[in-house]
Design goal:
about 280 residues, alpha+beta, Jelly Rolls, 9-stranded mixed sheet, 7 helices, 13 strands, about 30% helix, about 20% strand, binds 2-oxoglutaric acid, binds fe (ii) ion
C-alpha cells in the first residue's frame, strides 16, 4: 500500500483527507497554502545555525522547555533504550529564538497554525455524529491561541559511523499532541506503520505537507482517529553525508480543554511527560 497525496484545492479534498487520517493516521497534502520558499529558507538558515556554536547559548530551559536540545540529551522514544540521532530547537512565540531567525520561523508558526485550524475544521465536519458529539468543544477552538503549541526544528546530522548500535534518527513513536503538521523534510526517511505492521514510506517530495494524528485526538475521538507509529530511518549510501532538517508543528490544545471523561489536555500531557521521565 502507498499513502496517497491529496490535492488541497480539489472539491472533495476534505473528505479524502479525513478518510486517509482515519485509515492510516496520516494525510498528505499537495497544492496547499504553505509557502515553499519560506520552508526552504528556514531549512537553509537553521541548517547553518545548527553548524555553529551559537546554538549552545540557547540551551533549553528545563522549566519552560524552549531552546536548544543537544544530541547528548536528546529524546529516547517510549519503550526504547537507545537515544535518537538528532538535535533540535523548541520554538514557542513566547520563548527564546535567535534574533536573525525570528521573522521566518514566527511567520511559519502563524501560517501553519492557521492551516491546522482549517484542517481540524475538516476533521470536525467529516467525523461521524457519534464521534463529533464526544468533542467537548469544536476541534479548531481547542487550539485557538494556545500557548502550548510547539514548533520543533529538528536537525539529524550526517552519519558519523560511530552511532550507538541500533540507534536511528527517530525511533518508532506516536505524537502526544492533537495533530502534527509537517512539511516534507529536505531528505527522505519518514515512515509510518500500517495496521498490519508493515512500514511504508510517507511520500516526502519537497512541497508535500504531512499531517498526522496524535494521541490527544485519538483520546478525544474515543479511538476513532488512530495515532499511528512513525519513525525516521537512517540514510544509506551517499546520503549518509547529508543532514536532514524537519519542522514538525505539534498542535496542543489549551491546558484546560477537556479531551475525554478521564483527561484534560493538561492532565494528559503531564501523565505522558512523567512516563517519559522528562518532568
Ligand atoms: O523528522 C520527521 O520527519 C518526523 C519527526 C517526528 O516524528 C517527531 O519529531 O515527532
Ligand atoms: Fe513524531
Amino acid at each position: 500500500m502507498r499513502l496517497k497525496t491529496i490535492d488541497y484545492q480539489a472539491s472533495d479534498a476534505a473528505e479524502r483527507f479525513v478518510s486517509s487520517l482515519k485509515e492510516t493516521g496520516f494525510g498528505v497534502l499537495t497544492n496547499h497554502p504553505i509557502d515553499k520558499d519560506l520552508v526552504e529558507s528556514i531549512y537553509q538558515e537553521w541548517h547553518a545555525f545548527f553548524n555553529t556554536a551559537e546554538k549552545r547559548a540557547f540551551l533549553f530551559n528545563p522549566q519552560t522547555q524552549d531552546g536548544f536540545f543537544p544530541a547528548e540529551i536528546s529524546e529516547t522514544a517510549k519503550g526504547h533504550s537507545v537515544k535518537d540521532i538528532k538535535e533540535y530547537f523548541h520554538i514557542y512565540p513566547w520563548g527564546r529564538i535567535p534574533d536573525s531567525l525570528k521573522d521566518n520561523i514566527l511567520k511559519y508558526y502563524t501560517n501553519a497554525n492557521a492551516l491546522a485550524s482549517e484542517l481540524l475544521e475538516w476533521v470536525e465536519q467529516h467525523s461521524p455524529a457519534e464521534v463529533k458529539q464526544q468533542f467537548s468543544i469544536a476541534l479548531p477552538k481547542m487550539i485557538e491561541n494556545s500557548q502550548k503549541t510547539l514548533l520543533r526544528v529538528l536537525h539529524y546530522p550526517p552519519m558519523s559511523g560511530n552511532e550507538e548500535p541500533g540507534a536511528i534518527r527517530a525511533a518508532a513513536h506516536e505524537d502526544i499532541n492533537l495533530i502534527t503538521v509537517l512539511p516534507a523534510a529536505n531528505e527522505p526517511g519518514l515512515q509510518v506503520q500500517l495496521k498490519d505492521g508493515e512500514w511504508i514510506d510517507v511520500p516526502s517530495d519537497f512541497g508535500n505537507l504531512i499531517i498526522n494524528i496524535g494521541d490527544m485526538l485519538q483520546e478525544a475521538s474515543g479511538g476513532y482517529f488512530p495515532s499511528t507509529s512513525h519513525r525516521v530511518i537512517n540514510p544509506q549510501g551517499m546520503d549518509i553525508t547529508k543532514s536532514r532538517i524537519s519542522l514538525p508543528l505539534f498542535l496542543h490544545p489549551n491546558p484546560q480543554v477537556k479531551l475525554s471523561e478521564k483527561y484534560t489536555a493538561d492532565s494528559y500531557l503531564m501523565e505522558r511527560l512523567r512516563e517519559l521521565g522528562v518532568i
